[in-house]
Amino acid sequence: MTAMLLAWMWLCCYVYGVHYPDALATALVEARPVIRGECVNVIRVGPIGHGKYYGPMGINRCFSGADDPKENIRLGVRALGRYPSLEKSLRKYNATFNYAYYREICKWSRVIESGWTPQFIQVE
């Protein structure tokens, strides 16, 4: 599942003009689980929190297709590609935007650029 979703994300980034590490970092920050107070660096696919949002991109369930992983990625990457600036895109992407969120995504984007790749896990 990981290889297919990573390839799909890369293709969506190409189509919408989004920097691939930025999109992958956004998915990681949006959908990584916290277990016993520790962040686990995997990307969840499925319901996040109380089920209002779906991973991997943390899309609200009110959007058609948010529960399908490929459509979820397409919707999230398309939203990130709306503006040329990552910061401006993230302000629209996340209703609770703050600079700690932005710095976290920038940090993980640099880690991903250095060659690290997270794994996707399915949750019910």
What would you note in describing this structure?
By secondary structure, this protein is of the alpha+beta class. The chain has one domain: Lysozyme. 50% of the residues lie in helices and 16% in strands. The chain contains five helices and six strands. The chain has a four-stranded mixed sheet. The protein has a two-stranded antiparallel sheet with strand order 1-2. Strand 1 (34-35) and strand 2 form a beta hairpin. Helix 1 packs parallel to helix 3 and helix 2 (20-31) packs across helix 5. The radius of gyration is 13 Å and the shape is globular. The mean pLDDT is 88.
Give a quick set of tags describing it.
16% strand; 50% helix; two-stranded antiparallel sheet; Lysozyme
Strand content: 15-25%
State the shape: globular
Number of helices: 5
Tally of domains: 1
Radius of gyration: 13 Å
Q: Regions with pLDDT < 50 over 5+ consecutive residues?
A: none
Structural class by SSE content = alpha+beta
Report on the biggest sheet.
Answer: 4 strands, mixed
What is the CATH C-level name? Mainly Alpha
Distance between the termini: 15 Å
Instruction: Strand order, main sheet: write it out.
Output: 5-4-3-6
CATH architecture descriptor name: Orthogonal Bundle
CATH fold field value = Lysozyme
Level of helix content?
A: 40-55%
Give helix and strand order, one letter per element, not per position.
HHEEEEEHHHE
List the helices and strands and how they pair.
Layout lengths: L1 H15 L3 H12 L2 E2 L2 E2 L2 E7 L4 E3 L3 E2 L8 H12 L5 H8 L5 H15 L5 E4 L2
Parallel strand pairs: 3-6
Antiparallel strand pairs: 1-2, 3-4, 4-5
Helix pairs in contact: 1-3, 2-5
